[in-house]
Amino acid sequence: MSRQRRTAAQAAIAFLARQLVDWGEGPQPFFAGAWAIFGHGNVAGVGEALHASRRELPTWRAHNEQGMAHAAIGYARQMRRRRAMICTSSIGPGATNMVTAAALAHVNRLPVMFLPGDVYASRRPDPVLQQIEDFGDGTVSANDCFRPVSRYFDRITRPEQLLEALPRAMATLLDPADCGPVTLAFCQDVQAEAFDVPDDFLTPRLWRPRVVQPDPADIAMLAGRLRDAARPLLIVGGGVRYAGGEAALARLVSATGLPFAETQAGKGSLPHDHAGNLGSIGVTGSTVANQAAAEADLIVALGTRLQDFTTGSRALITGGPRLVQVNVAPFDAYKHRATPVVADARLMLEALTEALAESAGVPAAWADRLVEARRGWQAMAAEAMAPPAGNMLPSDAQVIGAVARGAPRDAVVVGAAGGLPGELHKLWPAGQSGGYHVEYGFSCMGYEIAGAIGVKMAAPGRDVYVMLGDGSYLMMNSELATAVSLATRIIVVLLDNRGFGCINRLQHATGGAPFNNLLVDAPHQGFVGIDFAAHAASLGAHAEKVDSIEGLEEALDRARQRDGSSVIVIDTDPMITTGGGAWWDVAVPEVSDRGDVGVARRAYEDRLTDKETRL
């Protein structure tokens, strides 16, 4: 067998650049490129290798390691997990900055390859700069933080280990059930060591990802239960999009009249105005979807992990006999005492359409009730998004209405944390698949701008709107400069409610005193007034502040005409939110000197009692 002399870093990067994937549309590189912030732990090894492979594998520079990883994750999600990116950092803070992003990818089942530098395997300069020293374990490094938030973790202490580690990493990134972040902690001295690499290791490899076929018995069981159900409901999760099941879902619901609700990850699988779409479900849900979930005698969850915001902390969706979980991951399919169906969502939808071809469809009484309830919710949502009267500060919903009214039908909205994900889930009119990109599995402040860069890379022909609060902007705004430097056109709408408005509302709801959330309630010397428009302009963006919804709509029109990124700032009311959501279990103290906490605790215990009765 012929071999080539390469450093470990050169071999790794050449291997990754030559991995191809075919999802039925022809081969294409799996990795679209690499994000890199260089330091002493990766610049000489991985950095040199990336430069040598820059024509096969483009490299981009960011300003924060967490931010660049968010961009990679945003790209992977927008690409429906069909392509991914690489993120490399030095050891120490460069690596640990990426741990938050790794956790986000892990929670959301999204592929990203992390290549953080690591300590010297040889231990020649032990301890090297930024090395974590464990007094009882000499093998520990800062990169061990990645272990619980990686689907696959390995530490490369010899070049030859790459021959097994890299194919295992690829298999994880492309597996429908195990998909998630991979971390290969790359010892910095090993990166520079040369070895003889087999030619076939560096030959392009084509991967055809496996598809989990539905069992015929499961198809028959589920079709039979849907025929017999008086009040059926589908819950559409992100797995429908990742399976490419949007068209199959459309055929099933059109043929049967089955109503469906959407999770955060599933929203937009079909347009918001589809006749069967009841909208968002759960804590951030619409009244009609939550009413349907409460009354349904059969709930079929498609490609969702059913976290507490979706289930209303298991008070809205209690699990048990009336719940069927269709998921490629057995871990998710067996949750909540559900009847498990381990299968690809698209294939199951296609099979159900065929099996129910002679079905009478959804009972008329159930369908008619939901049509009427849907009209009521649509009227409520339209009222919430209408411009405010007079000189009142607008609500989040009213800002969403202004953005939505001018956005093209194929626009993509990006959000992540605070109150906006709830309002967007309920109110944003997603017109096409991929038009709703809100990270709410990890609810990570600071994801928005960085994630939007990845979204725009994945969907360059679509307008990308970023909606975030002042808290998220202050937590991570540096990648706005990256968007400008890459000539990435995103439109950022910054809602300034002068603090953490969402958590301030939660503090009030649980009986707490106003404290440390809004800036006026924080224990500082004085109120801090921040000129966000000036700051955004200093990073190179077009920026302006508006003082009304009318002014916002005019500024959005201007932003849509520009080539570069824009930031529009508007002050909002921190206390107003749209109704419709289900209960969320947030524990209230059993004892407190505050009477309001006691009142909130008694209400909380009543909800727990009601939940236990339902279970």
TrEMBL record:
Entry-linked PROSITE patterns: TPP_ENZYMES
Broad EC category: hydrolase
EC number, UniProt record: 3.7.1.22
A single MF term (Gene Ontology): 3D-(3,5/4)-trihydroxycyclohexane-1,2-dione hydrolase activity
Highest taxon, organism lineage: Bacteria
Alphabetical UniProt keywords: Hydrolase, Thiamine pyrophosphate
Residues covered by the Thiamine pyrophosphate enzyme central domain: 220-352
Residue ranges annotated for the Thiamine pyrophosphate enzyme N-terminal TPP-binding domain, each copy included: 48-131
Domain Thiamine pyrophosphate enzyme TPP-binding: 418-570
Family: Belongs to the TPP enzyme family.
Protein name: 3D-(3,5/4)-trihydroxycyclohexane-1,2-dione acylhydrolase (Decyclizing)
Lineage start: Bacteria, Pseudomonadati, Pseudomonadota, Alphaproteobacteria, Sphingomonadales
